[in-house]
Amino acid sequence: MDSLSNGLLFLALALPFLAAVVSPTAIILFGRFGALVLALFPASALAILFQQSAQVQARQSILFGIDWIPAFGVRLGFRLDGLSFGFAFLILAIGLLVVVYSIGYMPKGSRRGRFLAFIFLFMGSMLGVVLSDDLITLFIFWELTSITSFLLIGFDHEREAARRGAIQALVVTGGGGLALLAGLLLIREGVGVTSMTQLLDSPEILRSSAIYAPALLLVLAGAFTKSAQMPFHVWLPNAMEAPTPVSAYLHSATMVKAGIYLLMRMFPVLGGTALWETILPLFGGVTLLVGAFLAIRQSDIKLMLAYTTIASLGLLVMLIGIGTEIAIEAAVLYLFAHSLAKACLFMVAGSIDHGAGTRDIRALGGLSRKMPVTFAAAILGAAAMGGLPPLFGFLAKEEVYAATATADVTGVLTTIAAVGGNALMFAVALMVALKPFLGPLPTGLRRAHETNWMIWIGPLLLGVVGLLAAIFSQTTHQFISNPMSPPDPSGALAVDIALGFHLGPALILSLVTVALGVGLYLRAARMRAGVASVLASIGWGPDKGFDQAMRTLVTFSFHLTNRLQPGRLDVYMRVVFGTIVATLWITMVWTGTLPAMPAFPRLFFYEWAVIGIVVLGVLIVVLASSRLTAIVSLGIQGLAVALLFMLLGAPDLSFTQFMVEILSVAILALVMTRLRLMPADRRPWRKILPEAFLAVAGGVGFALFLLAITQRAFDPSVSDFFARYSYTIAHGRNIVNVILVDFRGVDTMGEIAVVLTTAAAILALVRIRAAKPDVRHSRKRRRRSGELHP
Question: What positions does the domain NADH:quinone oxidoreductase/Mrp antiporter transmembrane occupy (predicted)?
């Protein structure tokens, strides 16, 4: 790949971030026309991607990137192939329409510039997710989508519901992101690969590894939380507190598809096993049915669409879990159809809210005369969502049933789930498209009106694209469906389905779905009441469970903080030293790395004298009757260490140790004489013994740790380096001095700064403590003289 194409693809990735920077200024300077200027950024990125469409259609992968942290094998590496191209197309194309829609939807004075900046930041983050090749790069962009969605969901931060929805989305998807990070690191360390390309080139390397099961579960945790699978689905309905453009973009076409993208990307590597083909269909099928049933319960149009989005995501996960070629092809078609239809209907919901002043379906009716363009867009979106011809959703539904309708038990169960879920979603689509627009116009909606063109152009275009994509299905398959689908073993095009009635099980199941959907629509009120009574009888649910978990976490953190950080220095010291001791002993005992006891060496008399000084100093410290005596005696240990340095041939270190000990004892003694402390430790033995045990365990633990280190094979590479280069580079023969002054001069300067800062703090404390009695006596004298009144 030439440098020009590499640079253009980097530009395509950077354009949304550049748009985020200029969005506030563009809105200030150009007002509503600023949206048209800003729309050029995703349009330009889309044009750059289409320049590579010939290679993508030929199933050629385009790799580009730069080294980021070579020492750790981390690279800003990206991969453009059929799968990433299809997702990038949806991200940029729908994002372009959302930008225009946002300007028409958001009222003046609603911080449009900031809102669009967040939208573009999310767009760039999502584009980075689907283009990332390096595993660490993928995680970084993955978490950026969680952060930017948090900003968008909580954009109306004055409302408590918006803040709760934003925090819930961040906690759930962020927690899944941490699981994904653990899975990616496990893959990196377990099989030694750092990129998706390496995994896809050797797909068996992970399936045959001992880390396959934990890696799969961790990756699924990340994907399921992002794509709102049961029981992690609760964040998506609550995210509807965000402005409608956010719902149309993040929660229908892009962010919730990140988990689907990850599963489709990792399918060649993780799929094809019993674990994969059990977990995904199970979670996907349950999510499909539960999401569809909960959608019937709602009366707010956005919430109805949110729960059908959860159901659709469950259907996609189920198809990917089935894992056959036709199932993956069905997932590709359904992904494309769902993104167009659901973004269209969310925009319709915003248009209804903007023009009629409410989204409550029970209060709506007769809007077709007031809002004919929005009505047309709603019909197109609902027909696509319900899988009616001649919309692209019809092709997707036919392929879904062709994938599930098999004779085995799994095929029967997945077909029942698919038919039931699709029928429920079709009923909801009819409710959204017909109930607000047909029938008499309520008195309260007399002033309802069609919205401005910036609001209705987006859903109408998406509906028309869903129609044209089906009419010109071969072109759609050429650019989108076939590059995203796995290649056919025979070399033929994998996807070639076109409009027409294909007699067979798929058509029969499709007709059954339509009939069930119409029947459920006609009994919508009874269904809503029935689902509501079931939910009321159940009571507890994941959403309430999230609140309980958060309250438990806050309560536990409060009590733990009060216990570990009560504002007392002695408690802090016990916690710190207790943690250190536990780490030393548990690590050595658990891993079986306790050192072997060395033979006691033969010592000279002066070495015995130093040992005697150490023992004497310990006894004096322990038996000292006052704190001041104990501090002064503590300096004996430092002097003994200085003597050891001298005996072992390091007079410079010995001199430094002498100076440090003398200065430390002097400072501590000075502080002790100025602080109001008990002259001696008067605590009972029951309080002293635990600390004595902690001190002995710490001392012995460190001694064993140092013995274990010294018993390992010595690596002379660092010593040889300094011996070789101390004189040639730093022009000094004293290696210790050269290390301190030259090789780690900045570190030494930092240590000096720390010592000076500590000295200044000690001096300030001493002066404050010394000044307080004088101030108190001065106030007493002034009060006696009559200058102050009690």
Answer: 132-410
Q: How far is CA 340 from CA 82, 446, 621, 646, 732, in A?
A: 19, 31, 78, 80, 71
Amino acid at 642: A
Q: Which amino acid is at 614?
A: V
What is the CB neighbour count within 10 angstroms for residue 386? 26
pLDDT in the model for residue 340: 94
Compute and round to an integer the Cα radius of gyration of the chain: 35
Q: Give the residue ranges of DSSP H helices in 1-80.
A: 3-30, 33-50, 53-57
Q: How confident is the model at residue 675 (pLDDT cuts 50, 70, 90)?
A: low
d(CA 489, CA 227): 30
Q: Where are the alpha helices (DSSP H) in 472-523?
A: 473-476, 482-484, 505-522
Does residue 247 contact residue 181 with C-beta atoms inside 8 Å? no
| Listed residue (228, 243, 237) closest to 119, CA to CA | 243
Q: What is the pLDDT of residues 703-759, one digit of tens each?
A: 999 888 888 888 888 888 888 888 888 888 888 788 888 888 888 888 889 888 888
Query: What is the model's pLDDT at position 677?
Result: 64
Q: What is the rounded distance in angstroms from the CA atom of residue 546 to the CA atom of residue 447?
A: 41
User: Which of the four pLDDT bands, split at 50, 70 and 90, describes residue 787?
Assistant: very low
Torsions phi, psi for 390 (to 5 deg): -100, 40
Global pTM? 0.82
Q: For 106-134, where are the alpha helices, taking DSSP H only?
A: 112-131
Is 371:437 a contact under the CB 8 Å cutoff?
yes
Give pLDDT tens digits for 752-763: 898 888 888 877
3-state secondary structure of 81: coil
Nearest to 477 by CA among 90, 33, 57, 9: 57
- Mean pLDDT computed over 297-303: 91
The total of other beta-carbon atoms located within 10 Å of residue 492's CB is: 9
Amino acid at 230: M
Classify 790 as helix, strand or coil.
Answer: coil
Q: To the nearest whole percent, how much of the chain has pLDDT over 90?
A: 48
Amino acid letter at 624?
A: A
Cβ-based neighbours of 758, under 8 Å, separated by 6 or more? none
94: nearest Cα among 160, 46, 33: 46
Report which secondary-structure segment, H or E, holds 62.
Answer: strand 62-69
Nearest to 181 by CA among 206, 218, 130, 148: 218
Helix (H) or strand (E) holding 230: none
User: Dmax of the chain from CA atoms?
Assistant: 111
Mean pLDDT score, 308-321: 95
Structure tokens at 775: 């101030």
Residue type, 500: G
Q: Where are the domains of the chain?
A: 1-187+235-263, 330-522, 613-674, 744-790
632: β partners = none
pLDDT value, residue 780: 52
CB 481 within 8 A of CB 497: no
Provide the 8-state DSSP code for 566: S
500 C-beta neighbours (distance < 10 Å), count: 13
